[in-house]
Amino acid sequence: MIKIGIIGGSGLDDPDILQDKAEKYVMTPYGEPSDALITGTIKGVPIVILARHGRKHTIMPSNVNYRANIDALRMEGCTHILATTAVGSLKQSIPPGYIVFLDQFIDRTTKRKSTFYENRVCHIPMADPFCSQIRQELIDTAKELKIRHHTNGTVVTVEGPRFSTKAESNMFRGWNCDVINMSTVPEVVLAREAGICYASIAMSTDYDCWHESEKTVSIGLILETMKENAENVKRILLRVIPNITFTTCSCQDAIKTAII
Fold first, then answer.
1. Number of domains in the chain
2. Residue 258: inside a domain, yes or no?
3. Residue 169's domain is classified under what CATH number?
4. Considering 35, 71, 107, 206, which one is annotated as catalytic?
5. Is residue 10 part of a domain?
6. Crossing angle for the helix pair 132-145 and 219-240, nearest 10 degrees?
7. Is residue 11's pLDDT more than 80?
8. pLDDT in tens, 202-218
9. For residue 226, what are the contacts with CB-CB under 8 A and spacing of at least 6?
10. Which residues of 73-104 are buried (b: 16+ CB within 10 A; e: fewer)?
11. Is residue 103 flagged as an active site residue?
12. Does residue 202 fall inside a structural domain?
């Protein structure tokens, strides 16, 4: 059976899109997830929503228990994850308000536990970290809804909680990164280890700090842009979820040959 987890990023952890809504607090071998699991359905499809930073946004990116979050969704039987995230744009062609369907990442985090296999050797393949089947459904849906989007993009995930210096921002632009955030890694890696298909709906909220003629990124600017554009992400979620019907995928099989 297909069950879809939605990991809510800043401003998008909205459980009101669910029918038959209920709260469930759980514990995992890795500790407590960020908040209660909100269960329900969307157009008949079982859904579990989890607020990445807590429903009151009290957990900074470095302190999110990513392992507990992913394991809690796995324990609930989630087969697919749709993750929403705010990102800063590193390209002129990705203005605030655009959606990016990420296909690659660069990891610049330093403090996070990024594997479930601390006592065994696990070399999980990550050449294509985001589920191509979900990504295609998301792209098709955005086209149908006429929502401005980019079909692919590389995100650089930094440790935070501070924002970049101009030197760092321009360095990441030189690496040909498209957007920047603080949450995709290790979330996407852990989902692959858990055998769950994972895709990201990334919303551009600002131009980081490299753009000389635009506002420098601030939490106020991010939340303002997210609030203005969150409706587009909800429209995508409501339309795409009934179309996610595949039950076999290389994402789910990768872990089978990764453990020594």
1. 1
2. no
3. 3.40.50.1580
4. 206
5. yes
6. 100
7. no
8. 999 889 888 876 666 66
9. 10, 11, 12, 86, 203, 205
10. bbbbebbbbbbbbbbbbbbeebebebbbbbbb
11. no
12. yes
